[in-house]
Sequence to fold (69 residues):
Amino acid sequence: MRVYFRRLRDMREDADLKQTDIADYLGIQQTVYSRYERGYQTIPLELLIKLADYYHVSLDYLTGRVDRP
Fold:
């Protein structure tokens, strides 16, 4: 199943960040992060947690399960 994390892109763009900025924070290549955002590659749980911490939101919000951060 392909999961598309629209919120990942939206939050990144709202913070005026580039994919390379987030990829550097996560310690991965920009191309890998791009695949995460587009849903072409599964995001490991530890990186999802790191992203939720970075943006100060819950995992449920990050993955689109709820609309309240």
Observations:
- The chain has one domain: 6-62.
- DSSP finds five helices and no strands in the chain.
